[in-house]
Amino acid sequence: MPELPEVETVRRGLAPVMEGRRILRVEQRRADLRFPLPERFPQRLKGARIDRLARQAKFLAAHLSTGEVLVMHLGMTGRFTISGQMKGAFHHETGAAESHDHVVFHMEGGETVTYNDPRRFGFMELWPAAEFGAYPRLTQMGPEPLSNHFSADYLGKALAGKAAPIKAALLDQKVVAGLGNIYVCEALYRAGISPKRLSKTIPGQRALRLAPAINAVIAEAIEAGGSSISDFANAEGELGYFQHRFDVYDREGEPCKRCGATVKRIVQSGRSSFYCGGCQK
Ligand code: ZN
């Protein structure tokens, strides 16, 4: 599932072919993704220029010259591919549309941007730009890592009264926006905090380390994703799913890089938590 760094990587990969360009034509191949696509979706996008392609948490927001914002969310398995003049027609070189290619944007400049989503938990919506500040899926969210509103002080206050395990609290998008299972595991390792510890019982120094640890793992992942953009044209043109090395995530049974103890896996709220019992208390 793409998390904040992957979505930012997608944004950076799409920006050169979408930002400042007009959408010449949209092919809509089904009526719905997770939700129904907007009414008259291709007609409302045709001819619109994307003035700015922004990201908030895990949402992409294309600000259009028509006064609407095209909001896009990748869900679990959504991905974009670019083909056409700029990148060479590698992914679609046979000309055959893949069965999970649901929306195709034909861009000014000659590229096509294809949205593919086998499980269809992703979605696209159009929202009036003047009311985008009140877009309900975003107004319910807490601050995102690396933003001015996200600090050790903020996080300490947000966790102070919470009885839930810290792992669950950090997955709560109202506490911090855009974090998923992978980067929560990595940040807790970095801060030396057990995923089982109750949010309100994290001692002072480690609590202070948590927000910087979250910022660090997200910043490093965005950097790794950025360096993958230059490589992706040589692969199959998919954006956002880059190789990334993790300290604990998906390393059950392997030695901790810091203390040598065996990395453990437990299941919390139906999700795997990976951690080092030696380093994380
Ligand atoms: Zn360790």
Structural overview:
- The chain is α+β, with helices and mostly antiparallel strands and 281 residues long.
- It has 2 domains: 4-139, Alpha-Beta Barrel (N-terminal domain of MutM-like DNA repair proteins); 152-276, Helicase, Ruva Protein, domain 3, CATH 1.10.8.
- The protein contains 7 helices and 10 strands.
- It has helices at 4-18, 41-45, 136-139, 152-159, 166-171, 181-191, 204-232, and strands at 23-28, 50-56, 59-64, 68-73, 79-83, 101-107, 112-116, 123-128, 263-268, 271-276.
- The strands form 3 sheets. It has a 4-stranded antiparallel sheet.
- A hairpin with a 2-residue loop joins strand 9 and strand 10 (271-276).
- The longest helix has 29 residues, at 204-232.
- The two termini are 28 Å apart.
- Mean pLDDT is 89; it is low at 86-95 and 232-236.
- Zinc ion binds next to loops.
Keywords for this entry:
281 residues; Helicase, Ruva Protein, domain 3; 2 domains; four-stranded antiparallel sheet; 21% strand; binds zinc ion
Compute the number of structural domains: 2
Proper CATH architecture of the largest domain: Alpha-Beta Barrel
Average the pLDDT over all residues and give the rounded result. 89
Structural class: alpha+beta
Could you estimate the helical fraction of the residues in percent? 25-40%
**Low-confidence parts, pLDDT < 50 over ≥5 residues?**
86-95, 232-236
Number of strands: 10
Give me the CATH fold name of the largest domain: N-terminal domain of MutM-like DNA repair proteins
Strand order of the largest sheet: 1-6-7-5
- The quaternary state of the protein chains shown equals single chain
| CATH-level-4 superfamily name of the largest domain | MutM-like, N-terminal
Radius of gyration: 20 Å
Distance between the termini: 28 Å
Which of globular, elongated, flat, extended, rod-shaped describes the shape?
elongated
How many strands, which pairing sense, and closed or not: the largest β-sheet? Answer: 4 strands, antiparallel
Query: What share of residues are in beta strands?
Result: 15-25%
What ligand molecules are bound, each kind once? zinc ion
Reading off the top of the CATH hierarchy, the class of the largest domain is best stated as Alpha Beta
Q: Please tally the helical runs, counting DSSP H or I stretches of 4 or more residues.
A: 7
SSE string: HEHEEEEEEEHHHHHEE
